[in-house]
Amino acid sequence: MIKTVKKYISRHLFPPQVAEREVVAAYDLWAENYDSQPGNLMLDLDKMLFSKLMVGVDIRDKVVADIGCGTGRHWPGIFKNEPASLAGFDVSPGMLQKLKEKFPAAETYTITDNSFSGISDHNFDVLVSTLTVAHIENLEEALEAWCRITKDEGDIIITDFHPDILAFGGKRTFKHGNKQIAVRNFVHTVNSIKEILLRNGFKAVNEIERKIDESVKHYYTDQNAVLVYEKFKGFPVIYGIHFRRP
Protein backbone atom coordinates (compact mmCIF):
# COMPACT_ATOMS: atom_id res chain seq x y z
CA MET A 1 0.00 0.00 0.00
CA ILE A 2 2.85 2.39 0.88
CA LYS A 3 4.44 1.70 -2.53
CA THR A 4 1.12 2.40 -4.24
CA VAL A 5 0.68 5.71 -2.39
CA LYS A 6 4.24 6.79 -3.21
CA LYS A 7 3.68 5.93 -6.87
CA TYR A 8 0.45 7.95 -6.93
CA ILE A 9 2.09 10.98 -5.31
CA SER A 10 5.03 10.79 -7.68
CA ARG A 11 2.79 10.58 -10.73
CA HIS A 12 0.19 13.20 -9.84
CA LEU A 13 2.00 15.71 -7.63
CA PHE A 14 5.45 15.51 -9.20
CA PRO A 15 4.90 14.54 -12.86
CA PRO A 16 8.02 13.74 -14.88
CA GLN A 17 9.52 16.65 -16.75
CA VAL A 18 9.16 16.66 -20.52
CA ALA A 19 12.47 17.30 -22.27
CA GLU A 20 12.22 19.86 -25.07
CA ARG A 21 14.33 19.36 -28.18
CA GLU A 22 15.08 21.53 -31.18
CA VAL A 23 13.11 20.55 -34.27
CA VAL A 24 15.82 18.71 -36.23
CA ALA A 25 17.09 16.69 -33.27
CA ALA A 26 13.54 15.85 -32.17
CA TYR A 27 12.32 14.63 -35.54
CA ASP A 28 15.48 12.64 -36.17
CA LEU A 29 14.60 10.74 -32.99
CA TRP A 30 10.89 10.58 -33.79
CA ALA A 31 11.50 9.21 -37.30
CA GLU A 32 12.15 5.78 -35.82
CA ASN A 33 8.50 5.23 -34.91
CA TYR A 34 6.66 8.15 -36.53
CA ASP A 35 4.71 5.86 -38.86
CA SER A 36 3.68 3.54 -36.01
CA GLN A 37 1.38 5.71 -33.91
CA PRO A 38 -2.12 4.24 -33.78
CA GLY A 39 -4.58 6.44 -31.96
CA ASN A 40 -2.59 9.68 -32.45
CA LEU A 41 -5.19 12.47 -32.22
CA MET A 42 -3.28 15.08 -34.21
CA LEU A 43 -2.30 12.76 -37.04
CA ASP A 44 -5.88 11.52 -37.36
CA LEU A 45 -7.36 15.04 -37.32
CA ASP A 46 -4.71 16.27 -39.74
CA LYS A 47 -5.53 13.50 -42.19
CA MET A 48 -9.20 14.45 -42.05
CA LEU A 49 -8.60 18.21 -42.51
CA PHE A 50 -6.07 17.71 -45.28
CA SER A 51 -8.43 15.46 -47.22
CA LYS A 52 -11.23 18.02 -46.97
CA LEU A 53 -9.02 20.89 -48.08
CA MET A 54 -7.57 18.94 -51.01
CA VAL A 55 -11.06 18.46 -52.46
CA GLY A 56 -10.83 22.08 -53.62
CA VAL A 57 -7.52 21.58 -55.47
CA ASP A 58 -6.99 19.93 -58.84
CA ILE A 59 -3.47 18.48 -58.75
CA ARG A 60 -3.67 16.24 -61.81
CA ASP A 61 -0.56 16.91 -63.93
CA LYS A 62 0.52 19.64 -61.49
CA VAL A 63 3.92 20.22 -59.89
CA VAL A 64 3.49 19.79 -56.12
CA ALA A 65 5.74 20.62 -53.14
CA ASP A 66 5.28 19.17 -49.64
CA ILE A 67 7.09 21.33 -47.08
CA GLY A 68 7.63 19.55 -43.79
CA CYS A 69 6.85 16.31 -45.60
CA GLY A 70 8.26 14.09 -42.84
CA THR A 71 7.92 10.43 -43.78
CA GLY A 72 5.43 11.20 -46.55
CA ARG A 73 2.22 10.56 -44.58
CA HIS A 74 0.06 12.23 -47.21
CA TRP A 75 1.92 11.01 -50.27
CA PRO A 76 -0.24 7.96 -51.09
CA GLY A 77 -3.31 10.22 -51.21
CA ILE A 78 -1.51 12.85 -53.27
CA PHE A 79 -0.22 10.29 -55.77
CA LYS A 80 -3.77 8.95 -56.27
CA ASN A 81 -4.61 12.31 -57.84
CA GLU A 82 -1.80 11.89 -60.42
CA PRO A 83 0.39 14.98 -60.03
CA ALA A 84 3.09 15.58 -62.64
CA SER A 85 5.67 15.54 -59.84
CA LEU A 86 5.92 15.69 -56.05
CA ALA A 87 8.92 17.07 -54.15
CA GLY A 88 9.43 16.70 -50.40
CA PHE A 89 11.18 19.24 -48.17
CA ASP A 90 12.08 18.68 -44.51
CA VAL A 91 14.62 19.82 -41.93
CA SER A 92 15.10 16.28 -40.60
CA PRO A 93 17.40 13.91 -42.51
CA GLY A 94 15.98 11.08 -40.40
CA MET A 95 12.44 11.73 -41.59
CA LEU A 96 13.56 12.04 -45.21
CA GLN A 97 15.39 8.74 -44.93
CA LYS A 98 12.15 7.04 -43.85
CA LEU A 99 10.33 8.68 -46.75
CA LYS A 100 12.98 7.37 -49.16
CA GLU A 101 12.49 3.85 -47.81
CA LYS A 102 8.82 4.06 -48.80
CA PHE A 103 9.31 6.05 -52.01
CA PRO A 104 12.83 5.27 -53.33
CA ALA A 105 12.46 7.54 -56.37
CA ALA A 106 11.27 10.51 -54.29
CA GLU A 107 12.67 13.96 -55.02
CA THR A 108 13.67 15.29 -51.60
CA TYR A 109 15.44 18.34 -50.20
CA THR A 110 16.82 19.01 -46.71
CA ILE A 111 15.74 22.46 -45.58
CA THR A 112 18.68 24.40 -44.16
CA ASP A 113 17.17 27.91 -44.10
CA ASN A 114 13.90 29.72 -44.74
CA SER A 115 14.77 31.24 -48.10
CA PHE A 116 14.64 28.14 -50.38
CA SER A 117 17.38 29.88 -52.38
CA GLY A 118 18.04 26.82 -54.55
CA ILE A 119 14.46 26.76 -55.84
CA SER A 120 13.46 29.01 -58.73
CA ASP A 121 10.56 31.47 -58.63
CA HIS A 122 7.06 30.25 -59.57
CA ASN A 123 8.17 26.62 -59.62
CA PHE A 124 5.17 24.82 -58.02
CA ASP A 125 1.49 24.77 -58.91
CA VAL A 126 0.51 23.51 -55.46
CA LEU A 127 2.37 23.80 -52.15
CA VAL A 128 1.20 21.87 -49.08
CA SER A 129 2.52 22.04 -45.53
CA THR A 130 1.01 20.02 -42.69
CA LEU A 131 1.79 20.22 -38.96
CA THR A 132 4.88 22.32 -39.67
CA VAL A 133 4.27 26.09 -39.38
CA ALA A 134 4.62 26.31 -35.57
CA HIS A 135 8.13 24.82 -35.78
CA ILE A 136 9.37 27.82 -37.78
CA GLU A 137 10.74 30.73 -35.76
CA ASN A 138 10.92 33.37 -38.50
CA LEU A 139 7.62 32.54 -40.15
CA GLU A 140 7.34 35.68 -42.28
CA GLU A 141 10.64 34.92 -44.00
CA ALA A 142 9.56 31.33 -44.65
CA LEU A 143 6.08 32.16 -45.95
CA GLU A 144 7.49 34.86 -48.25
CA ALA A 145 9.72 32.19 -49.77
CA TRP A 146 6.80 29.74 -50.11
CA CYS A 147 4.85 32.41 -51.99
CA ARG A 148 7.85 33.10 -54.21
CA ILE A 149 8.25 29.48 -55.32
CA THR A 150 4.50 29.05 -55.94
CA LYS A 151 3.14 29.92 -59.38
CA ASP A 152 1.05 33.03 -59.93
CA GLU A 153 -2.24 31.11 -59.99
CA GLY A 154 -1.11 28.55 -57.44
CA ASP A 155 -2.57 27.01 -54.30
CA ILE A 156 -1.14 26.73 -50.80
CA ILE A 157 -2.61 24.42 -48.15
CA ILE A 158 -1.52 24.76 -44.52
CA THR A 159 -2.56 22.72 -41.47
CA ASP A 160 -1.10 22.85 -37.99
CA PHE A 161 -1.62 22.80 -34.24
CA HIS A 162 -3.87 25.72 -33.37
CA PRO A 163 -1.88 28.60 -31.83
CA ASP A 164 -4.47 29.03 -29.05
CA ILE A 165 -3.68 25.61 -27.60
CA LEU A 166 0.08 26.13 -27.96
CA ALA A 167 -0.17 29.51 -26.20
CA PHE A 168 -2.03 27.83 -23.32
CA GLY A 169 0.73 25.28 -22.81
CA GLY A 170 -0.10 22.58 -25.32
CA LYS A 171 2.91 20.64 -26.55
CA ARG A 172 3.78 18.37 -29.46
CA THR A 173 5.24 15.33 -27.70
CA PHE A 174 6.35 11.79 -28.42
CA LYS A 175 7.90 8.91 -26.51
CA HIS A 176 11.51 7.89 -27.10
CA GLY A 177 12.61 5.00 -24.93
CA ASN A 178 11.49 5.86 -21.41
CA LYS A 179 11.47 9.61 -22.05
CA GLN A 180 8.74 11.98 -23.15
CA ILE A 181 10.13 14.45 -25.69
CA ALA A 182 8.53 17.77 -26.65
CA VAL A 183 9.33 19.42 -29.98
CA ARG A 184 10.02 23.14 -29.83
CA ASN A 185 7.12 25.29 -31.08
CA PHE A 186 6.55 28.98 -31.77
CA VAL A 187 3.13 30.61 -31.50
CA HIS A 188 2.00 32.24 -34.75
CA THR A 189 -1.58 33.49 -34.89
CA VAL A 190 -3.81 32.39 -37.74
CA ASN A 191 -4.39 36.06 -38.61
CA SER A 192 -0.66 36.70 -38.94
CA ILE A 193 -0.41 33.82 -41.42
CA LYS A 194 -3.34 35.19 -43.41
CA GLU A 195 -1.83 38.68 -43.49
CA ILE A 196 1.46 37.43 -44.96
CA LEU A 197 -0.32 35.39 -47.64
CA LEU A 198 -2.68 38.32 -48.40
CA ARG A 199 0.28 40.63 -48.99
CA ASN A 200 1.53 38.12 -51.55
CA GLY A 201 -1.73 38.05 -53.47
CA PHE A 202 -3.35 34.97 -51.90
CA LYS A 203 -6.91 34.67 -50.63
CA ALA A 204 -8.22 32.17 -48.08
CA VAL A 205 -10.82 30.14 -49.98
CA ASN A 206 -11.50 27.50 -47.31
CA GLU A 207 -10.78 27.31 -43.60
CA ILE A 208 -11.47 24.50 -41.11
CA GLU A 209 -10.73 24.03 -37.42
CA ARG A 210 -11.49 21.34 -34.87
CA LYS A 211 -11.94 21.75 -31.14
CA ILE A 212 -11.28 19.35 -28.30
CA ASP A 213 -14.72 18.03 -27.44
CA GLU A 214 -16.52 14.83 -26.53
CA SER A 215 -15.95 13.38 -30.01
CA VAL A 216 -12.19 13.12 -29.33
CA LYS A 217 -12.28 12.35 -25.61
CA HIS A 218 -11.55 8.66 -26.23
CA TYR A 219 -8.06 9.56 -27.47
CA TYR A 220 -7.28 10.96 -24.02
CA THR A 221 -9.06 8.18 -22.18
CA ASP A 222 -6.98 5.57 -24.02
CA GLN A 223 -3.80 7.35 -22.91
CA ASN A 224 -4.94 7.79 -19.29
CA ALA A 225 -4.89 11.54 -19.90
CA VAL A 226 -8.40 12.62 -18.95
CA LEU A 227 -6.93 15.49 -16.87
CA VAL A 228 -5.27 16.83 -20.02
CA TYR A 229 -8.61 16.53 -21.82
CA GLU A 230 -10.35 18.52 -19.09
CA LYS A 231 -7.66 21.20 -19.21
CA PHE A 232 -7.97 21.78 -22.95
CA LYS A 233 -11.65 20.96 -23.51
CA GLY A 234 -13.21 23.58 -25.77
CA PHE A 235 -9.89 24.75 -27.22
CA PRO A 236 -9.37 24.66 -30.98
CA VAL A 237 -6.69 22.01 -31.46
CA ILE A 238 -5.96 22.11 -35.19
CA TYR A 239 -6.69 24.40 -38.13
CA GLY A 240 -6.39 24.11 -41.89
CA ILE A 241 -6.52 26.79 -44.58
CA HIS A 242 -6.57 26.59 -48.38
CA PHE A 243 -5.11 29.70 -49.99
CA ARG A 244 -5.31 30.52 -53.70
CA ARG A 245 -3.64 33.27 -55.70
CA PRO A 246 -6.23 34.28 -58.32
Keywords:
3-stranded mixed β-sheet, Rossmann fold, 10 helices, 7-stranded mixed β-sheet, 26% strand, 246 residues, alpha/beta, globular
3D structure, described in words:
The protein has helices at residues 2-12, 23-30, 41-54, 75-80, 93-102, 139-149, 163-167, 190-199, 217-222, 226-232, and strands at 19-21, 63-67, 85-90, 107-110, 124-130, 150-161, 172-176, 179-183, 203-211, 236-244. 36% of the residues lie in helices and 26% in strands. Helix 5 (93-102) links the parallel strand 3 and strand 4. With 246 residues, it is α/β, with parallel strands linked by helices. It contains ten helices and ten strands. Mean pLDDT is 92; it is low at 1-16. It has a single domain (1-244), classed as Rossmann fold (3-Layer(aba) Sandwich), CATH 3.40.50.150. The strands form two sheets. A seven-stranded mixed sheet has the order 4-3-2-5-6-10-9. A three-stranded mixed sheet has the order 1-8-7. Keywords: Ubiquinone. This is Ubiquinone/menaquinone biosynthesis C-methylase UbiE. One of its GO terms (molecular function) is S-adenosylmethionine-dependent methyltransferase activity.
